[in-house]
Design a protein that fits this description.
With 323 residues, the chain is α/β, with parallel strands linked by helices. The protein is 34% helix and 26% strand. The strands form three sheets. Strands 3, 4, 5, 8, 9, 10, 11, 12 and 13 form a nine-stranded mixed beta sheet that branches. A five-stranded parallel beta sheet has the order 6-2-1-7-15. α1 links the parallel β1 and β2. The chain is globular and about 60 Å long. The two termini are 37 Å apart. The relative contact order is 0.20.
Length: 323
């Protein structure tokens, strides 16, 4: 009887844990290297599109996720100043905190037989690389992400607020908490002394939306962020943000991390060539990456307010989902 393949996974976030679970289901023996103990929140939109249920079912963890009491969202709103694009989602989306999802994925992987090594290690040929987004950014007006949780009245809606050079997403997660997360350029943030409460006040609609809420944790910051594909060695399986960093306003980042992680873990377990894996994941995620880039260029050109009344709100949702 053939010995099971060993799969090394560097990075234990969404993509890394998805890779470990997929490798286990393919009959391999994965090892997960990550010094993080998952004891803190991460900057994340915490929005899971409807397709995530199928991904989590395929990894064997949907029932555990459902038991966490995730929020359900049936509608979306996109705010451009006083203009609003509103639509009903084709299927309910899910709100679940990143901290809770990280924990349940890693617990499932370790409980299923994955070896967890709480150490930092260098990637090598044939491993799954899931160390997150590229941190280096070119000089200029760099982009930073920020996030906090609020308590108070929650809605069954995912909301996007586009201001002058920044945007903020608002959506419910479990336990009646509302996640508020966004991106802004460094110059704008420095002008506000990185006061994110003041940033919310730059959008009258966003200020009104958050007025009845109470901030439940300190603001978190991450960055600088770099969009698009990340150059990695060709002899490994890059997944999640290590493969490509998609614009967060699409709400597809967590889905892409889970899907690329699943594909990477399966490919590594079967010893498929990294080139074949890249082609497969590129085909699966190519459309959302391209459409996200296109939408971002429209926003950067400042024509979002003009186009908003004429573009169905669900286009932003449907066109940025994997095939």
């Amino acid at each position: 009887m053939a010995e099971p393949n060993s799969v090394r996974i560097v990075g234990g976030g969404l993509a890394g844990c998805a890779a470990a679970l997929a490798a286990l289901r393919a009959g391999a023996e994965p090892s997960l290297f990550d010094p993080s103990r998952i004891s803190r929140h991460r900057v994340c939109g915490e929005f899971l599109s409807p397709e995530v249920r199928q991904s989590l079912e395929g990894l064997g963890v949907w029932e555990v996720a459902a038991a966490c009491g995730p929020a359900l969202m049936h509608r979306m709103e996109v705010h451009f100043g006083k203009r609003i694009c509103a639509d009903r989602l084709p299927e309910p989306a899910i709100g679940l905190s990143r901290l809770r999802l990280d924990h349940l994925l890693r617990d499932a992987a370790v409980g299923g037989g994955c070896l967890y090594v709480p150490e930092r290690t260098e990637p090598s040929a044939g491993c799954v690389l899931a160390t997150g987004r590229q941190s280096a950014a070119p000089s200029g007006d760099r982009i930073f992400g920020f996030k906090t949780h609020f308590s108070g009245p929650a809605r069954d809606t995912v909301e996007l607020y586009f201001g002058d050079r920044f945007y903020v997403g608002v959506n419910p997660v479990e336990a009646g908490i509302t996640n508020v997360c966004g991106l802004a350029p460094e110059s704008l943030l420095r002008g506000l002394n990185f006061d994110y409460d003041a940033l919310l006040g730059l959008s009258p609609a966003l200020a009104e939306r958050t007025r009845p809420l109470t901030r439940a944790m300190a603001w978190l910051t991450t960055g600088p962020l770099v969009y698009g594909r990340t150059e990695q060695p060709l002899d490994l399986y890059a997944a999640g943000d290590a493969f490509s960093f998609i614009d967060p306003f699409t709400g597809a980042g967590m889905l892409n991390a889970l899907e690329s992680g699943r594909m990477a873990g399966t490919a590594a377990a079967r010893q498929d060539s990294p080139a074949a894996y890249r082609a497969a994941v590129g085909k699966r995620l190519g459309r959302p990456l391209f459409m996200a880039s296109l939408f971002r260029k429209v926003l950067e050109a400042g024509v979002g307010k003009l186009l908003a009344p004429w573009i169905p709100g669900r286009w932003l949702f449907s066109l940025t989902r994997p095939r």
